[in-house]
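Help needed: design a sequence for this.
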């Protein structure tokens, strides 16, 4: 009986020990189930961050379908291959569409080119005449003339008169380029970045757009689209176009967030440096609707050649519609919406949807949106690409 009792005690103890070991081992797989449940429940919980992110992803295609944002964030417009871009075989300046540009084109074609042509031909004929007339065979005894008052006066006075004749229209053109813009001008602020441009419209609610170069087929990344013929020439087309009104003075302000850039549109006769910490200003007026291309013309880094500029000039009525489609306001109607709809204007600015480039002064004057029509995932610029 004692042996049976001892065996029973030993058996009971072994069973108790094994049950304790099983109890310790059982909780190990148990945490797997609790971890899996929160992962499945997280999307259903819909945190505030996800609630904001979802409308941003859905809103972008809706805005890009607006008729005013049909092509590269701008109204649909056919591109003239002979205006606003380099033309193969063209030996003169691009056709100009601003008063300053037309004045510069006249100055180039009717003053500079004829003057340099006449001087070049005259010097060439003079050299040929001297070589023939004063060669050794025809002039065995060299002349000992050391001074000729008439010749010295002529070769000093005539160049001075030529330079004065060129300086007067040149100074007038230079003065016209830096003439202050009137109060009715539309302000465009161009901000240079490595290596893309961002633009602000302070007079139209302060909205902002970002323009990156469109890549060629086979070079695009995820979420990007390749350039097509409707976008413009290779290396000049952008995923967002700058839209400006025709016949209205434009105040161009340039600055930079990193290094010196230069905003240039040859068809506007505009080339203005964008310097960090400084605001440069000029003005111009576009006379003809169309699509005009330019580039950064200041060596600014490894991808200097890949930050083009695309400007689409439209009528003032179409410009007002485009501003409205971008969420901006026209100066005459800016006061009423600002006081009548404060509640609706604030939620329209979604932090998750703001994919614009850096703002030079650190603050925007109104709603900041980048409503690209190209699904360009780069957003704030193809930095480092």
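Sure. Designed sequence:
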């Amino acid at each position: 009986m004692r042996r049976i009792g001892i065996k029973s005690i030993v058996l009971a103890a072994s069973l108790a020990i094994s049950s304790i070991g099983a109890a310790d081992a059982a909780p190990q797989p148990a945490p797997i189930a609790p971890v899996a449940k929160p992962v499945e429940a997280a999307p259903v919980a819909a945190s505030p961050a996800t609630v904001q992110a979802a409308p941003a992803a859905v809103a972008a295609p809706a805005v890009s379908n607006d008729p005013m944002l049909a092509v590269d964030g701008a109204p649909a417009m056919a591109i003239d291959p002979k205006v606003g871009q380099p033309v193969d075989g063209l030996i003169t300046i691009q056709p100009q569409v601003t008063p300053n540009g037309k004045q510069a084109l006249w100055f180039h074609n009717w003053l500079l080119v004829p003057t340099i042509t006449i001087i070049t031909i005259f010097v060439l004929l003079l050299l040929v005449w001297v070589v023939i007339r004063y060669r050794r065979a025809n002039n065995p005894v060299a002349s000992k003339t050391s001074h000729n008052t008439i010749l010295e006066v002529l070769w000093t006075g005539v160049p001075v008169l030529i330079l004065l004749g060129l300086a007067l229209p040149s100074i007038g053109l230079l003065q016209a380029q830096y003439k202050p813009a009137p109060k009715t001008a539309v302000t465009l602020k161009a901000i240079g970045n490595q290596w893309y441009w961002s633009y602000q419209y302070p007079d139209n609610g302060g909205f902002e757009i970002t323009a990156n170069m469109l890549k060629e087929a086979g070079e695009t990344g995820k979420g990007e689209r390749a350039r097509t013929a409707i976008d413009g020439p290779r290396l000049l087309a952008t995923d967002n176009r700058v839209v400006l009104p025709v016949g209205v003075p434009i105040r161009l302000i340039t600055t930079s967030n990193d290094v010196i850039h230069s905003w240039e549109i040859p068809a506007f006769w505009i080339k203005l440096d964008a310097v960090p910490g400084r605001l440069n200003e000029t003005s111009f007026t576009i006379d003809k609707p169309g699509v005009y291309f330019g580039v950064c013309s200041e060596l600014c880094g490894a991808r200097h050649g890949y930050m083009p500029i695309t400007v689409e000039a439209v009528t003032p009525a179409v410009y007002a519609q485009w501003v409205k489609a971008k969420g901006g306001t026209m100066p005459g109607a800016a006061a009423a919406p600002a006081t009548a709809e404060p509640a609706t204007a604030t939620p329209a600015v979604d932090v998750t949807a703001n994919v614009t480039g850096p703002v030079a002064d650190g603050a925007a004057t109104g709603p900041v949106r980048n409503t690209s029509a190209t699904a360009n995932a780069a957003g704030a610029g193809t930095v480092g690409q």
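The first strand starts at residue 186 and ends at 193.
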